[in-house]
Amino acid sequence: MGSALPLGEPAPLDGLLPASAAEGADGRALGVYVHVPFCRVRCGYCDFNTYTASELRGARQVDYADQAIEEIRMSRRVLAASGVASREAETVFFGGGTPTLLPADDLVRMLGAVREEFGFADGAEVTTEANPDSVGPEDLLCLAEGGFTRVSFGMQSAVPHVLAALDRTHDPARVPLVVRWARDAGLDVSLDLIYGTPGESLDDWRRSVDAVVSERPDHVSAYALIVEDGTKLARQIRRGELAQPDDDLEADMYELADEAFADAGFEWYEVSNWATDAAHRSRHNLGYWRGDDWWGVGPGAHSHVGGVRWWNAKHPAAYAERLAAGHSPAVGREVLDAPTRETERVLLLTRIREGIDIASLHAGGRHAVAGLIADGLVDARAALAGGLTLTRRGRLLADAVVRRLLED
């Protein structure tokens, strides 16, 4: 979640949604995202809406759980008053920032508020992100006993100089420990990686991939480093202190990872995500890619219900002030028109393994499929069965595939 808020119309103080948000709601899954905007150290590459202790300026980390709970209570009232069908939460995801900088008891309390307001569907997936140096065995046991089912560790790399370039503070040797502690607590485990860091060689990346495989997690994410404007990393590259990430090297890194994960029994199910089986895919993130509904709790959090997207005040102090006044924390929103929703549908569904129904594309998109097959970007067998699924090369060029599918 980037730190810059988009342009849009002002959101109403009561947070009520337009009538269009309620249409078809009972046929869409509901997820809840809880943003915890605190970090011990700001990583040089990060553009997320996060704050270190010195940046809070009037907000207090100790107050945050109660503020988030207030928004959770409000979310249920707003949806009901807007006529949106009542549904149990299929997934809950705590992201950040570093959610586990808060006491585990606070995370459990916030989760309890979601359970009280919405209820949980059978087998609901409940995830928290964590840094390897932000949890101990007692924390993970508390989370598991409180209803969490899954933890996603921000490993990023197994190579010390790569972690240093990213301003990550953990010791790579701690990763096996936290994985074991999570397993002992009964939690599913995901490990997150970043590739393309300045100074990272293909051999460095191979070390990280091999380290992940050796831990046998249930799920792996591997994202190419993006240099975001305004970050420390962008300034370092602009000054010539670090090299710009190399696109060709990143492609080699992706292919290495995809092959290694496949050999180890992982299946790709989204361009940057692999799981041991369908049951261990991130159902929360699949909800984003499939265009389901989600309520985003916390400063700068984004929500989406039935084609209405809105976003909260960015700074924790501004967020807290709005809640204290009895107002919705939402500051802006947009109602997506039909062409925008179709563009997003194609963009997002193309990224996942199930792909998109070719018959659902407009004429120009359908006509583009033959050329995409010829270029080795789309799986021919899947296309013959009526579905568009990316090949490995297609995943590397997913944005180009989408552009061609959207051409008239």
UniProtKB/TrEMBL annotation:
Record SUPFAM superfamilies: Radical SAM enzymes
Entry keywords, A to Z: 4Fe-4S, Chaperone, Cytoplasm, Heme, Iron, Iron-sulfur, Metal-binding, S-adenosyl-L-methionine
Domain Radical SAM core: 24-267
Keyword 4Fe-4S appears in the UniProt entry: yes
Cellular compartment(s): Cytoplasm
CDD domains: Radical_SAM
Coiled coil residues, start to end: none
Pfam families the UniProt entry points to: Radical_SAM (PF04055)
Gene3D superfamilies registered for this protein in UniProt: Aldolase class I
Main location: cytoplasm
NCBIfam families named among the record's database cross-references: hemN_rel
Function per UniProt: Probably acts as a heme chaperone, transferring heme to an unknown acceptor. Binds one molecule of heme per monomer, possibly covalently. Binds 1 [4Fe-4S] cluster. The cluster is coordinated with 3 cysteines and an exchangeable S-adenosyl-L-methionine.
Family in the record: Belongs to the anaerobic coproporphyrinogen-III oxidase family. HemW subfamily.
Stated name of the protein: Heme chaperone HemW
Species, as recorded: Agromyces salentinus
Lineage: Bacteria, Bacillati, Actinomycetota, Actinomycetes, Micrococcales
GN (gene name): hemW
